[in-house]
Amino acid sequence: MATSRVTKRPRVLLAHRDAAWVAQAKQRLESLGYVVTDCLELAFAADLVTGTAPYALAAISNELDPDSQMRIMKFIKEGKSPLKLMLLLDNLDSASIHVRGKTGILTHRLSEDVNTFALAVAGQIGPAPRPPAL
After folding, report:
1. Helix axis angle, 19-31 relative to 114-125, nearest 10°?
2. What CA–CA distance (Å, rounded) separates 3 from 67?
3. What is the mean pLDDT of residues 27-52?
4. Confidence of residue 3 (pLDDT cuts 50, 70, 90)
5. DSSP labels, 9-39
6. Least C-beta-crowded within 10 Å: which of 12, 28, 49, 117?
């Protein structure tokens, strides 16, 4: 009797107001095997992060309101999830850097190059597993 093994694909949240960039980034991440939730309305980002669907990584605009930022940081600090947080900074360049200190927060400066973003995501949460062969 054959058994089927379900491979869990990492979930990524994209929360940013730029619909075109989000659509391109989502398409690229999904082509790499990630499950992606997009959130164009930043007011819902904290609810998604702290909700029941666990994310491996949340890439969120730095334009998020202070109350939502506080909810997300409290959620991460309390250790309720192994969530990695990436702050999306607008159109400066395509560099990704770690914020210094104990935060472990990654920042990514948005550019037209969504491949650089996808590589930064994969570098943080690892590659998505391949589906089992039939």
Report:
1. 50
2. 47
3. 94
4. low
5. PPEEEEE-S-HHHHHHHHHHHHHTT-EEEEE
6. 28
DSSP string over 110-125: --S-HHHHHHHHHHHH
Considering only CA atoms, which of 80, 35, 89, 109 is closest in space to residue 72? 80
Q: Which amino acid is at 92?
A: L
Q: What is the pLDDT of residues 119-132, one digit of tens each?
A: 989 988 988 887 65
* pLDDT at 91 exceeding the cut of 90: no
- The pair of structure tokens assigned to 54 is 């666990």
Segment 36-40 long-range contacts (CB within 8 Å, at least 24 positions apart): 36/11, 36/12, 37/11, 37/12, 37/13, 38/14, 39/13, 39/14, 39/15, 40/16
Token duo for residue 16: 């940013």
The whole-model pTM stands at: 0.81
